[in-house]
Amino acid sequence: MDDRELAFAGAARQAELLADATITAPQLLEVYLERIERLDSTLRAFRVVRAKAARREAADAQRRLEAGERLPLLGVPIAIKDDVDVAGEVTGYGTSAHGPAVGADAEVVRRLRAAGAVIVGKTAVPEMTLWSFTETLTHGATRNPWHTDYTPGGSSGGSGAAVAAGLVPMALGSDGMGSIRIPSTWCGLFGLKPQRDRVPLAPHDDAWNGLTCYGPMARTVLDAALFLEVASGESGFVEAARREPGRLRVALSTRVPPPLTARVGRVQRAAVEEAGALLRELGHEVIERDPDYPPAAVVQALARYFRGVHDAVRALPHPERLEARTRNFARIGGLISDHRMTRIRAVESLVAERITAIFDDVDVVVTPGTAAGPSRVGAWQRRGAITTLALCAQRVPFQAAFNLTGQPAAVVPWGFDEHGVPTSIQLVGRPHDEATLLSLGAQLERAHPWAQYRPPVS
After folding, report:
1. Which one of the listed residues 155, 159, 232, 375 is annotated catalytic?
2. Which of 15, 107, 320, 332 is most buried, by the most CB atoms less than 10 A from its CB?
């Protein structure tokens, strides 16, 4: 296996090669560090590369492998999104307004390390993880390895670009309004937003008033399942990714949740139709049915989003360094009172019950991953907070409702648009039922494979 194939082999396979002594942890790390040095000047996927620290971690992992220790990710490199704490590094949030380096890992990073992962670096985000594109005045623009004129998405844009280009085998993302699923869609990855609280957010508990989840961005379903087992501390996800899902009742839906308005593109709509046809061939019962989206759902999600950004900005030591658009967004969030937020959270279960009622009759809902392809790099310069939000929402209307309900949702790569940029379908599962999404996702991966494709910048 040459270095390029090794880079794209996937975390689960790399863990096997390391355990069998076919490769060493330092050798594997150097493959990625060389690729980052060669390719990341074009992509800007990483905000910081921890080359020296990662080499120490890889050497330690190799000693443990040679001593016979076996852990799920021992010696496997991984990237961490830059809104998650890594000891000794600043948590940058895509801005220069951040504080000093943190002294301790976030709980999810601690769990990844405990499983043996080597932390390569921290990936780029839009300022305060606000947008579905990854461009900042502080760090510049992150580009899509499939077509560098376009964004990889956001806010986990650096994580998406890094995995797609083979700079790491998988990465940690966070998802408060679609921030795992959007860049996974436009980078050709399997991305999973788990059930709320499946993966701990500590020390940033209840981020964005309960909208945010941490989850995997990976090239294969099995890699994502392995990540989820490690990060959640729960078993069964890898086994789910390896078993057949059985016959499922699946609902196809291309309806845009109100009050959002968006035109679902031809390619995105065709992906849902093609997925429906394949699901029927695989033996599933497929119907067309829309969830009952109350208009209040998106409105309440937006209120939690605005107020969450306001609270995060207040915690910064240098908020005056933020971009004007971010400051204005946070200012709007400050208009949402504690009393109003308490009332919104109090009725969350009623809104969620209405949306999830469809799962009384179906096992999975399939929607487009996004309504359109990504924006061009630079398209959002000099736009205000509300204009940017409104225009972004027209591209990505299918995510926020499921952050509000907290239920799991994943995106499965599905072809390419006219610019050669990947698109996807979204699988939405019952609350707490990531297992079905992993089983179904893996079945689709076998029948409609995607991991063999490589972007031009790779």
Report:
1. 155
2. 15
